[in-house]
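Q: What does the assembly look like in three dimensions?
Context provided by user:
Components: two
Sequences:
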Amino acid sequence: MTIGGDAPVSVQSMTSTHTCDVDATIQQIHNLARAGADLVRVAVPGRADTEALRRIIPAVPVPIIADVHFEIQRALEAVEAGAAKIRLNPGTLSDQSKALTVIAACKERGVPIRIGVNEGSAVDRYDAAKRSQHEQLLAGDRRTGLVRIMVDRLAEYVRLFEKQGFSDLVLAAKSPDPLIVIDAYHTLSQTFDYPLHLGVTHAGPPSTGRIRSIAALSALLADGIGDTVRISYAADPVLEVEDAVELLQCLGLRARRKPELIACPTCGRIEVDLLSIVEQVRERLEEIDAPIKVAVMGCVVNGPGEAEGANVALFAGKGKAVICVDGKQVRTVDEAEMLDALMDEVRRYASRG
Amino acid sequence: MTIGGDAPVSVQSMTSTHTCDVDATIQQIHNLARAGADLVRVAVPGRADTEALRRIIPAVPVPIIADVHFEIQRALEAVEAGAAKIRLNPGTLSDQSKALTVIAACKERGVPIRIGVNEGSAVDRYDAAKRSQHEQLLAGDRRTGLVRIMVDRLAEYVRLFEKQGFSDLVLAAKSPDPLIVIDAYHTLSQTFDYPLHLGVTHAGPPSTGRIRSIAALSALLADGIGDTVRISYAADPVLEVEDAVELLQCLGLRARRKPELIACPTCGRIEVDLLSIVEQVRERLEEIDAPIKVAVMGCVVNGPGEAEGANVALFAGKGKAVICVDGKQVRTVDEAEMLDALMDEVRRYASRG
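A: Here is the predicted structure of the complete assembly.
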């Protein structure tokens, strides 16, 4: 697969299993792929994990990225084991001679490398002069300082790679703060010509992390920035993939395969228990594998026009319901039959293809 | 309160009670205000609803907007009853002589008017010539056509209002499709100098509507577009307000009053049941009324730097946990005591003010 250029924006996730637990890792990668992940990253903290890659990679339907965090030796092993891409952080790159070995190995095999500088690893921990320079930058406006540090560090690594004639790079500069993410990637897209991997890091559980993640990614994707995305939740990673896929679909960056449900928010004009009807429709639509737009409205008075471009729409009123297809009224039924009637029309519409 | 100009972006919601059910409506408005709504809209389909406004308005802590959908007479009654703002749609404005009466009444009392054209009410239903022109526009690229129709219709109403010397307007052009919303509001912000009310209409239940809504609103707010926002879910409207407030906080458009929880997404390096720890921390943080950034990390190896600017951070490892305050390690405790120790530090930090 291709990241960047004219390729579609791809969805990534990362396994939460121990990679050396081969069966569990393969199972989770299958779950992620089924949810729509185009590529999956796995952590390789130990030798047993890179060894496990040899069994995992042939058994899964998506390319595998090896996430190397501490020991750069793991990157060499992962390349040997057939990883499709390597992710390195500033920590692993601090030993320049080892970094050169990895660059050479990846170049030889055509394996791309992502360099990811997170807010948390932005300040240099190894070089005292740089550290003091970074701390000075943070003493001013913290957000501006962090963006500057992250972009500068990436520029430094990019130079190191380019000097070796290596240009198969993907860049990332993540933070838990959507404002830093938006600012950093705008700067990256103006500074570099490499594909960008978008993400809000450490976003927390979906209940608190979803809005933060979608806010940052949408602001960037809507401006045409971003070639691959990862949403990170402290949760089952399948949820990350589902939300990332939904975001790309919302922004017209990925074709829908399932129905889209729209519903009026209910108001003082309502005459039915719309929330319960919506929930029932949502459940029944799960069986449909077609990108149909279905509307459920709690008010018949405004007529078909209000169904907002829905393919099939249900207008529920007092005891009766009207069903419209492509804006034209096709049936009026009793309330008791409305869900069956709606699903009949949805299935008929879906079978038209 | 002020909408537009340099005023902060405000959060709106709409009651789902029957407005004439005064007690239920007052109760819901209080719930919405407590969740962070700056103003609340109520539907006034009948005479009993505008009458109810006389008892509702003095009993609630936020300005009330009357949503007039069918009979423009309701707008006059709502102004009489003390509504802070009126929302009109193209349908109500089709009778121009009545529209002029409402404009005069609002002008006399200094009541602003929002004109909202939704995708569903974009195509003219009253004027055959306009209808045919609109249908022609839709026959090309549907999204582009819809944006053009919505903006043109708003321009027509704006001229009608301006001819009466009325400029206290707020404009809206909603759709369930985030791409149409993003495009429409970009065009509105280039075309008009009036405050804009942002929203994705008929977004469905939060499970399917949240991403769509946040995606559109974030893309616009991040570009500086939008003066007041409403998220519409087919659900308890308190959820709309909570999500809108969270979005504004994420984008730095509203100050936080509660802790912000960040957490690592877990990976193959993890040694503890982080998801359960995160959930427990989330529950315990509910008692804290201070905008502290709290991090929960499942890996001690990366050290304090990885806590991404958190004020108080917990690093959970095998049997032991490290607690850091502003990036400095302050305590190492046994796993059994780590939540109590974390909360001690959080409370201490909060009390510093």
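Follow-up: Chain A has two domains: 10-250, 260-351.
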